[in-house]
Amino acid sequence: MSSNQWTLQPSDLFSAGPVVPVIVITNIEQALPLAKALLDGGISVMEVTLRTECGLQAIEDIAKAYPESLIGAGTVINTQQLADVAAAGAKFAISPGATEALLAAGQQGNISFIPGVTSPSELMAAQAHGYDHFKFFPAEANGGVKALKALGAPFQGIKICPTGGISLSNAPDYLALDIVDCIGGSWIVPVDLVEAGEWDKITQLCKEAVAALS
């Protein structure tokens, strides 16, 4: 299956909004109210990481309860996880990196797969498999805006979603780059607010981000 047969195209995902929230859910009861808080704040794209035991279940619950959301999985690091998140109802999967097996499986699946890259060689390897949309992680630790500007220069037609160390203060610098359509951020879903169930405050953070970055 080629990428143009994916249900949701990476270009649609990257253009759905300026911020992709990177979500870590530690308690399954947080999933639905958090998803509603994001939707109420004007953000439909949600990257739920597989860093916790309930991450997969959270994706399934959100996909069923809020079909209008663009719910996806983050921290997908092997082909089994890719298959699992697709079965759970994820509309996309994002990896911090990529192996040959994962790149091949991503093209054969039915959901958008966004591989992670930090170097020209990794980018070229992914391009050889047909990819043109990528995650750059961890962004700030790998040189930030300057590194992305240099990385993008030799490659035409690619789009990158940088994630890691990005906040409302430096997000505009990333979004000003031609190769960046959106950024990944965890500042709009702070762990302390999620743990405390402060959903209204998360909605407000989302509204502020959308207003400032759109």
What characteristic shape results from the CA principal axes? globular
Strand order of the largest sheet: 5-4-3-2-1-8
Helix content: 40-55%
Order of helices and strands: HEHEHEHEHEHEHEHEHH
Give the number of helices: 10
Taking all residues together, what is the mean pLDDT? 95
The count of DSSP E runs of length 2 or more, i.e. the number of strands, is: 8
Overall CATH architecture: Alpha-Beta Barrel
**Hey, roughly how much beta strand do the residues contain?**
5-15%
Radius of gyration: 16 Å
What is the CATH domain class?
Alpha Beta
Q: How would a crystallographer describe the biggest sheet?
A: 6 strands, parallel
Q: Can you identify the CATH superfamily?
A: Aldolase class I
Number of domains: 1
Task: Enumerate the spans where pLDDT stays under 50 for 5 or more consecutive residues.
Answer: none
Q: What fold name stands as the CATH topology?
A: TIM Barrel
- Span from first to last CA? 33 Å
Structural class assignment: alpha/beta
